[in-house]
Structure formats: C-alpha cells, structure tokens
Structure prediction request, 623 residues.
Amino acid sequence: MVTRFLELLAREASAVEFEGPIIEARAAGAGPAEIERLELAKVEALRVRQLLRRRARREAELSALFDTAGDLAALRDLDAVLEAIVHRARQLLGTDTAYLTLHDPERGDTYMRVTDGSISAAFQALRLGMGDGLGGLVAQTARPYSTADYPADSRFHHTGTIDFAVKEEGLVAILGVPLRLGRRVIGVLFAANRSARPFLQEEEALLASLAAHAAVAIDNARLLQETRNALDELSQAHRTAREHAAAVERAALAHDRMTSVVLRGGGIENVAAVITEVLGGRLWVLDDLGRPLAGDADAAGLDPGVFEAAQDSRALGRTVRRGDLLIASVDVGGEPLCTLVLRGDDADERILERGAQVCALLLLFRRSVAEAEGRVRGELLDDLISRPGSPGLAERARRLGLDLDTPHVLVVARHDGQRERAAFWASSQAAIRHGLAAARGEEVVLLLPGADPGAIARRIAAELTASLGHPATAGAAVPRSGEVTAAYREAQRCAQALVALGRAGDGAGAAELGFVGLLIGDGQDVPGYVDSVLGPVTGYDARRGTALGDTLAAYFASGGSPSRTAEAMHIHVNTVTQRLDRIGKLLGDGWQEPERALELQLALRLHRLGHTTSPQSVENGPI
Prediction:
C-alpha cells in the first residue's frame, strides 16, 4: 500500500486522492496497526507533495524573474516591459488584477501607469495622494502593505475618489510593494483580488522582486532616453555647426567676390549684380532717401514698411525680414547710408549683410573722394569770388577740367540751415557737370557751364529742394568778362529778391525778375527789359506804322479812361477801343492787372527816353 502513495505523488494527484489507500485497507479488513502505518505514510506523502508543489512554484517564479531580466536586457519599449511585469505578477500570484503606479514629482502624487485585468475606467485613471489609500501609504513609507479586505481595513486613509474607483473595480484584497531606486520611491506595484484573501509572505517577496525589476526597467529606460536625447542634441548641434560653417564659407566666398569686384574698379551696380547672382531674387539698393542706386530701378512699388524695417535693421545691426523681403541697412554715425532690399526665398542673410557693408564702403569712398575734390573746387571758387585776378586761377581751373573762357553761369542757392547736406549735393553736382561749388554760410555757390541763368537757376532750385526736402531758392547771373565777383553779388541779390517777392523755392536770373531785375542787375540791360515787356506792341507799330504804343501811354496817363484817351489823342473813342483790343491781343490776358500795368508803364517811360526794341523783336513780333 505504501507504493500507492508514491504513485499518487508521481502523477501529482490531488490531496483527496491520498485517502484512497486507507479506505481500501479498511475495506479489506486491515488491522489497527496497518491503518496507523498507512495514516503516517499518507501524512508524509502529503508533506512531500506540498514540498514538491512549493518547489515547482518557486521554479516558475524564478523562471518568470529570469524572463523579466531577459526582457530588461533587450529593453526597447518601456511600456511593453512594464506591461509584461504587471501581467506576470498577476499570473504568478494568481490574482484577479495587477497594476502599477508611478510618482509624479510635479504634482506630488502617484498616478496609474499600467493595469492588467482592470475593467473600470475610473480605476485606470486613478491618482493617489501621498498617504492616501494603501498605495499612497506604500509610496509615502517605502514599505509593503497588504490587506485581505481593503474596504473594511481602518489602517488606511480612505478617500471618496479612491473608494469609488476600488468599489467600481470590485477589489477587496490588495497587496502593494514599493518601486525603489536607492532610497527614492518612484512608484508602487500591486496585486489585487475581487474576493477576500490573505497574501503570503512568499507572494509579497515575489511581488517585491518584480517591483525591483520594474524599477530597474524604468531607470534604464530613463537613462536610455537621456542618452538618446543627448545623441539627438549632439547630432543637431553637429548639423547646425556644419550648416553654420557652410553658410560662413558661402558668405566669405561671396564677400571675396564682391571685394574683388571693388578692387577691379567696379561700382555699386557690379556689387549688386554679384549679390543677385549668388542669392537670386529681386534686389534694390537704395540711398539714404530711398532712391535706387543699383539693382532694380523701380523702387516705387516698395511698401513704406520697408523703410521702417530699414530703421530696425540699423538699430539691431542685422538683417530684418518683412513678409517676403529681407532688409539690410547700414548707417555711419547714426546717419543712414544705404539699404539693400531683397525679395527671394531662403536667402542667406549674412551675404546680404556683407553686400550692404561693401556698398556702404563704396559710398563712403565716393563721398570721401567727392569731399576732397569738392574742397579743391570750393577753394578755387572762393578765390575767384574773393581774390579776382589772382595769378594761377585759370591754370588751377584747367587742372580740374574747367575752361573759364567758355560761357558759365554763377548760381547762389539759399538752403536755410542744412549746410552739410547742401554742400555735399552741390559738390556732387559740380563734379558731375564739370563746374565748381563752394559752401558759404547759409548758401551754396555753383559755377556751371551754360548761358541761360534763369533756366539753370530754376533747375538748381528744384533739384536742391528735392534733395533737402524743403524749399531752396536760387539766383543766377552770367559773369561778364570773367568778373565772377560781380556775378556772385548779382546772383545773391536775385535770390534775396525771390524770397522778398514770396517766391521761395524758385530760381531766376535778373531778366526773369522784371523791373526788379533791372534794378538789381549789374548789367542793366534796359533795351532787353523794354523789349521783353513792350516788344509785341512796339514791333507791331514798326511793321504797320500804327500808334499802339502812343495809345497805350495815353490810356495809362488818362487813368484808364477810353473817352479821355480819345480826347487827348483827338481821335474817336471807337478807335481807342479798337486799338485797346489789338493791344490786348498782342500782350495777352491780364495786361491791365496792377503789377503788369506797372511793368508796362515803366517800359513805356524807358522807351520814350530813347531805348528802342531789338531788331529781332521787330522781325518776329506777333502780327
């Protein structure tokens, strides 16, 4: 019969089956001694059975721990490893559910991370404050806790949220062990049943081993992620460094090309061509007033915001983007010098900035050359005005490409305050037009080739007004016999007369100022004045043998009365009326206006004193 117990152990029979041999012995009429011997054998067999089952269970636990360690060694996904640990905890402990919470350092509590066997959404989203419930107590004390009946266990701090989630999940028995890294608790691993049951010490030890693996997995995943992040940062830094180095090299090559262009004598137009070739797109190079210097000649279409962006670029010292435009602007001593505006995609800002600097240097060089040449030209003009007849003046003029024996016009332009800008503008004009320029107080003086003082004065006034942004008034005169000093004084008086007449911002010579010009002009061209005012009438009289001039004089003498004019001339009033109609057609509308009438009366007086009209007026006067 004893061998029967060995057979039962061999086939892992249930504990009930070990009663079979004793029942059979009693049925066969075995004595008490035999029955007692079988009872002792049964007890030993059950003890062996329990030992074998415990060893088998331990072997399964060790195998599970070994598998978990293997998973950690091949760690790729933290979520998958944690889910495997929780699933194995549930299988090994034979519980209805298992779950894992992690510590949230920002909120100071723990939150549900992984569940296995859970059916409640509220439970799966549960958060436990430190010290709240069984899990909060484990996280707070770093010690394992278990309960056979959690809802009825008063050792734990019950909260409405936790109790509701536990009740909805239907949990009764709960075991929780801490996940520790050194002395720090990073979470809690749980196993739980939906019916009351105590947890053995071996189960607690097994769950603690799994928790240790979970803590290692979490820490390894953290280190791996940090390593990956560091590698990504290093890779990004390396890419950025390579891109930066490439951009610097491109900018340096472009700068070398632009410098080479300048050294070969190229100008801003050539530099702009290099920039456009390297960067592509559409380029504008603007001066300090927003006028195009090179590149695209049409700057009228640029939005006014571009010029505000140019101010920002100068303030920041770098390129500024406005929509699809890149703006790089350079100043010197707070004064705008030039602005580059590029419309293009993904253009290298460094190249545009270097292009702006090269253009600024070219402009500064031009300005320095112009200022140096302007000083030489200004000194010569000052000497022509202040020291007429000094030896060597003509030779100095010839060295500057100026022939004083050809017709010239001297212009005095009043700028009222903007001395430096006006002087630079005048110097540039003198260099361009092969003349001379000098700054004298609140005015600039120019000696330019030409023979029409009025036209040149008007042009100078208009262009200087546009450059300064406020009215500039110009008077002009022709030096007679090389007498620059007298012409300078006459031009000054013309400019002063324009201001006095309310014509600031205009330009004129003495001939355009009527009788005022006659009074202030050094030449006093009386016949020219009479011809310009009265020529149509006197010319008509000379051709037709009429007396329109006498009729006009009598008309003014009689106070503008046709009847008194007829009496004075002994003619019919209708004749006077017809003659006045003819005079009106010859002189044009407005001849009776006070200012025009004054001019006519003065011309009539001078005509009667013996100043006749020129032959050209007689031949070409209106019929």
About this structure: The two ends are 165 Å apart (CA to CA). The longest helix spans residues 201-263. DSSP finds 22 helices and 16 strands in the chain. Residues 611-623 have pLDDT under 50 and may be disordered.
